[in-house]
Design goal:
The chain has about 400 residues and is mainly beta. The chain contains 1 helix and 21 strands. It is about 0% helix and about 45% strand. The two termini are about 50 Å apart.
Length: about 400
């Protein structure tokens, strides 16, 4: 006797992941070499979150200790044999020789339903399920993994007949949140300013450094539409501004943009009880050098940079932003500009850095499934935004539309 799972769709690494709008359809195939009895056949869809972080040592003689937690994000059990109208029999139900096929249909939930009574020091969040992911901090200071499984369990009558199981690992990604626009500010802007002092490599014809008053304040500004959301495999909806302000300069002295670096910085936080580890990783999107873009006076022009410098940059196919009980991943867009005096001669560059907190979305939104009975848009699920998005993105709700003390609508 053996059992196998057959799904109606492929689940290789190159196939799209499941979402909470997808049904997991398939069959449990029980192959018997001879007629045999079976008590029950159950299919189980579940998600598990495992986290481990180096714990603070209470005894100097102790070695490295890890605080660990593993719990179910959700679990859906569906009996598929025997039929519900058959009475339970302690002797089981006899099945014929050959392949016995039991179809099933399950669905990922929208929100987690986790709880762990054995570890009440874990703050459980009934929020959107995290994507399938595995992370590891430098020096093994922390690890975490979110996994989803489909399992078939065959129970047999008799004390000495062990249960048969078969299991598949499924990829999952959450849908993009349904953000209500009335709760958002109009634009996401971050500005950095730096005093660009006269450089020692100035041409000999210039007055001595100690006598010059051409120190220039460079304003470097980055702007994204609000909310500051970037979609994987999409271009950056970014605007950059670089101008000279409050600059009593000697005529003929110019300031140029020399270098430009755009990168996505990912912050990963693993927390188990009082123990927490945070680390950062970076993904470069644009790295340009040898530029000679002259800056304009702030009073005369807006100073918007030509977006051809980053028009080919796209957000890589990366894990979207998410928050779970013990694992958080959030992102920021980091922009670094290098500026200098003089177009010719020795170049000494002053870098100015600014950043905007962003949420990464996959672009997967709720759409009607042809196999579902969904007639109106109002019946589509409302997907709550990530816990912590308001704080991370700097969202301020408008007092005329929603009470400032009210929680986000998905968690009220």
């Amino acid at each position: 006797m053996k059992v196998a799972i057959q799904l109606d769709r492929p689940i290789s690494d190159h196939d799209p992941p499941f979402t909470c709008m997808d049904y997991v359809r398939g069959s449990a195939v029980l192959s018997l070499q001879r007629a045999d009895a079976v008590s029950r056949v159950t299919v189980i869809l579940s998600g598990t979150l495992f986290s481990s972080v180096v714990a603070a040592a209470t005894n100097p003689l102790d070695g490295t200790l890890h605080a660990m937690n593993s719990h179910k994000l959700f679990e859906d059990n569906q009996p598929i044999f025997p039929p519900l109208d058959l009475p339970i029999s302690s002797k089981g139900f006899s099945l014929p020789q050959g392949s016995n096929v039991f179809p099933f249909v399950l669905r990922f939930p929208l929100l987690s339903t986790c709880s762990d009574m054995n570890h009440d020091w874990i703050k459980h969040l009934n929020t959107t399920l995290p994507p399938t992911t595995k992370v590891q901090a430098p020096n093994n200071a922390a690890t975490a993994e979110a996994k989803y499984h489909l399992k078939v369990k065959v129970e047999r009558p008799g004390r000495f007949k062990p249960d048969l199981t078969s299991q598949l690992e499924l990829k999952f990604t959450p849908l993009d949140p349904s953000l209500p626009p009335p709760m958002l500010n109009p634009v996401s802007v971050r500005t950095s300013r730096s005093l660009l002092r006269t450089l020692s490599g100035s041409p000999p014809s210039s007055p001595p450094v100690s006598d010059r008053l051409d120190n220039s304040v460079i304003t470097f500004e980055a702007s994204l539409p609000s909310p500051a959301i970037l979609h994987t495999k999409h271009h950056l909806p970014l605007k950059l501004f670089a101008v000279i302000k409050s600059a009593p300069r000697i005529p003929g002295t110019s300031v140029y943009l020399r270098t430009l670096l755009l990168s996505l910085r990912t912050e990963t936080i693993v927390t188990v009880g009082p123990n927490s580890t945070t680390w950062f990783s970076s993904n470069d999107l644009v790295s340009l050098s040898g530029l000679d873009t002259e800056l304009s006076e702030g009073a005369a022009e807006s100073g918007e940079l030509d977006d051809h410098l980053w028009k080919d940059a796209t957000v890589p196919n990366m894990t979207p932003s998410f928050t779970s009980c013990t694992l958080v991943q959030q992102h920021s867009l980091v922009i670094v500009g290098g500026f200098s005096y003089e177009k010719n001669g020795p170049i000494q560059t002053r870098t100015i850095k600014t950043s905007i907190n962003v949420d990464i979305h996959t672009g997967i939104r709720p759409v009607p499934n042809p196999d579902d009975i969904v007639e109106t848009v109002e019946e589509m699920p409302f997907v709550p935004w990530r816990v912590g998005s308001e704080r991370h993105l700097g969202i301020v709700r408008r007092s005329d539309s929603i009470s400032m003390n009210a929680p986000p609508p998905a968690y009220s």
